[in-house]
Amino acid sequence: MDNEDAAGKLSRSAVEAKKHLVDNHPHDSPEVIAFTIDAGRAEYLDWITRATR
Predict the structure, then answer these.
(1) Distance between CA atoms of 6 and 37, rounded to whole angstroms?
(2) What is the pTM of this model?
């Protein structure tokens, strides 16, 4: 899978996760936020990649 495919899958997954959270949360307007990680310790970033596949 190239980076464009991975980014597309991640984007779709984020949209699906947001919809699920909003649709199933007991509050009328739940807080749903996201942020990107621009930098970090290489070992930690590698762990995140492995843990979220």
Answers:
(1) 16
(2) 0.47
